[in-house]
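Q: What does the assembly look like in three dimensions?
Context provided by user:
Components: two
Sequences:
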Amino acid sequence: MTLLRRAIAALGVAAMIAAGLRIRGTGGTPPQTGGWRELRGPDLR
Amino acid sequence: MSSGSSGGRRTAGVLGVGATGARAARQLASADTVDAVVLGGQGDRPVALQRSLGSAARIGEPIGPATGVVVLAGPAGTHVEAARRAVDLGIHVVSTSDAVGDVEGLLDLDARATANGACVVVGAGFSPGLSCVLARHLADWVDRVDEIHLSRFGTGGPACARQHHRALAARAIDWRDGDWVRRRGGSGRELSVFPDPVGSLDCYRAALPDALLLHPAFPDASRITARQAANRRQRMLAFLPMLRRPHPEGRIGAIRVEVRGERGGEMVCEVAGAIDRPAVAAGAVAGLAARWALAGRFEPGAAGLAGRVEPVPFLTELSEFGVRAAVFVGVT
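A: Here is the predicted structure of the complete assembly.
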């Protein structure tokens, strides 16, 4: 019974950590170089 | 690209005069190639818009055979039946819907539209719409297109905001390695860099129709995906009805289009984007597409803009309405 309770508690903690990471994480790192420039010229390049 | 003439008809119809439809109507009313704009919609908005546009606009008239083109800018779910009626009369159709069901239904009208000599421009808004034109433009820069990835941020009017909310909770549809793949909305987090001042935002899968529109234009691309930006609140509450009243006109929005492929034997990645208020940009794209349809610049049949437009003249004309695109440069 104690083992079962501990297993359930461990699963609960793992689920909370996973949910936190899923909600609070980010999808990547923005590029450190480069930038936006308006399309221009006859070919809009 | 040409054909699909409107037979000299110079009247345009606009069904649904919310944030997007009103701007499309305004643009059409100011065009030299359009004699009159017939407005249709619910409530007193058509009356108010007609007062604002003056003699160029009319209300209370059905969309009939004298109409050359009709812009459908009503709520999602209303476009297919209206398009079917118009196509049966030989009237060109420009739809701004970004609902997967609408886009699938409109693309299914292809044979009917071709038989009636009408063109159905599907997804003529900000995204899809301008995003499809940018995808075509970037694709022309490479020898072979392997992948196309789109992301978008922001909403137009209230109907667009509700559709955006529903999309995050519905199943996404992507093209992947020769097959359609449906995945849970709200999954697949990826950071997308939009033009300034929007910047970097996390984007997620959602029920967006972009892949359905781009695949026919780029049948050899192995992957076509679309994502939309969402914050934590939007993700957590996507399965509930909207708890906040949407902004009546929408705030700033952005799109980003990434095309990966081969040029001169090297793998390249080209990125373009745009920022604008989505309703403003969508109205401009829809209005311009309607003018091109009236001028017979589209082939009969149903398709998105990526398979229809010559991107440089389209983007050039669009820039005259203040909708400008940018390219991301300088990645090392």
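Follow-up: Chain B touches chain A at residues 137, 141, 189-193, 195-196, 199-200, 202-203, 232, 235-236, 272-273, 311-312, 315-316, 324-332 (CB under 8 Å).
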